[in-house]
Amino acid sequence: MKNTSKDIVLNFFWNKEIYMQAGELAYNYKMFHTPKKYMGWFFIALLQFGVVGALLKGTLAILLFSTILLIYWYYIKKIIEKSILSRSFKKEKEANKKLHILINNDSITINKKVILWDEIPLIIAEQSGYLLDHRDGFLFFPKKAFASEEDNTLFIKIAKKHHIHIDRIQDTINYNFLKK
């Protein structure tokens, strides 16, 4: 195994695009990889009962109610979340600023603020980057901010060395049709 004593340096601008990307990844993870996914399944089951009720009894109330819930849960909620994220970016103290991040065996330092590895229980790895679950919220490191594939691999090795759970996900649902 390679020596993991080398520091990894990331420099990138914390802009709205990266902020929204991080927010979308956090939202998708919470919706489809946590117990919240069962709520969506419940709405789907309710919709099926609504279809049966409409076919057998001619009542459309459950069908209409469950259809509205399903549309809200999978589409409208996503639009609302994006709107909230967009507004909250303006309040970010690091908005549109360059972040200097130093990653080593002991900690992650973001603009002189030190975060110990013990404070990060989970890393969500996705094509676009890494979302780190931290007690103060999520941190996001875009993969394009890593200088090389070697740094990218070293980051994962350091995280694994600290027994951090790394959950690799793909895009669960493609929301590209919502992007304008």
Q: What is the number of helices?
A: 4
**Outline type:** elongated
Overall SS class: alpha+beta
Query: Helical amount among residues, as a percent range?
Result: 40-55%
Sheet with the most strands, sense and barrel status = 4 strands, antiparallel
CATH topology title of the largest domain: PH-domain like
List the uncertain runs. Answer: 171-180
What would CATH call the class of the largest domain?
Mainly Beta
State the oligomer.
single chain
Q: End-to-end span in angstroms?
A: 45 Å
Question: What percentage of the residues does DSSP assign to strands (E)?
Answer: 15-25%
State the total count of DSSP E strands. Answer: 8
Spatial order of strands in the largest sheet = 1-2-3-4
CATH architecture of the largest domain: Roll
Cα gyration radius (Å)? 20 Å
Q: Write down the domain tally.
A: 2
Order of helix and strand elements from N to C terminus:
EHHHEEEEEEHE
Mean pLDDT: 84
